């Protein structure tokens, strides 16, 4: 009885054969609708900052170094790959690629840094209208921004005209904590 | 003799302790997924163990919340040296969407020294396998930092210079 059940089990196992995927040796095709790491096209980007407004994990940071230069940093370590940045981009500069093999031993390996030349609008100083954002965003995130790129922190202060004092202040920004 | 044989046979077989530090169970399901016959991770000698004292590596999933913080530290100290720490999912690598909130430390690397990061929300089972294979030295690292720059002049600067030159042409003709 014991032996017959084992033989039965063996036969059951024989039927499907080997099902294991030999992964690192052979790579199966990736599904097309997979949202992997986002890829920037820096020629198309106009630097409106819409992606950093709508990122749920606030992993796209925007920092105005001077009037004409804006640095945008994508910190892939806390990205949730939701694809809202690709949806909101008016120029279609962000595409969600299907590369998922991004395991690394250093967090800086999955960052993208963009340096953009900005031209000022004659009327408002910026080029992006904030109609689609909510009221809190409209108060906070309009105009020039000063996120801290070293700390990877979103600084919720903006100014209508470029101010070097705010830029200097945001350099030594520290995350608020109750440990001190 | 037996010791040397054991070292050769089990040198690269990692026993893994899975530690949920406030994850949404998405990453945990993917970790269980790589133990299934389809993504059979036991062919690398990797085995899930219940106690950290048996383990060589630690899988952390989830942003380390305040209640789990002392427990994670104790579990890490219980693992015998040498030990590896994998941070699985975007919550463990950088804090995810909760990197700033009041009861989250914001990523496993702020609590423990993390060796390998596997981002994704949740990471695909292939991505976790890739991270494990990276740790075992079977594949090369594919991720690299990207820096992009717009190499064009600001147009108003360009036009200003051009207008200045044109004006100078007229003045030079008048001379």
From TrEMBL, chain A:
It holds the Pfam family Fer4_7. PROSITE patterns: 4FE4S_FER_1, 4FE4S_FER_2. Keywords: 4Fe-4S, Iron, Iron-sulfur, Metal-binding, Repeat. Residues 36-65, 70-99 form the 4Fe-4S ferredoxin-type domain. InterPro entries: 4Fe4S_Fe-S-bd, 4Fe4S_Fe_S_CS, NADH_quinone_OxRdtase_chainI. It comes from the Bacteria. Transmembrane segments: none annotated. PANTHER family: FORMATE HYDROGENLYASE SUBUNIT 6-RELATED, NADH DEHYDROGENASE UBIQUINONE IRON-SULFUR PROTEIN 8, MITOCHONDRIAL. This is 4Fe-4S ferredoxin-type domain-containing protein. It comes from Chitiniphilus shinanonensis.
TrEMBL record, chain B:
One of its GO terms (molecular function) is 4 iron, 4 sulfur cluster binding. Signal peptide: none annotated. InterPro entries: Complex_I_20kDa-like, NADH_UbQ_OxRdtase-like_20kDa. Pfam families: Oxidored_q6. Keywords: 4Fe-4S, Iron, Iron-sulfur, Metal-binding, Ubiquinone. Residues 24-133 form the NADH:ubiquinone oxidoreductase-like 20kDa subunit domain. Its cofactor is [4Fe-4S] cluster. Belongs to the complex I 20 kDa subunit family. This is NADH dehydrogenase. It comes from Chitiniphilus shinanonensis.
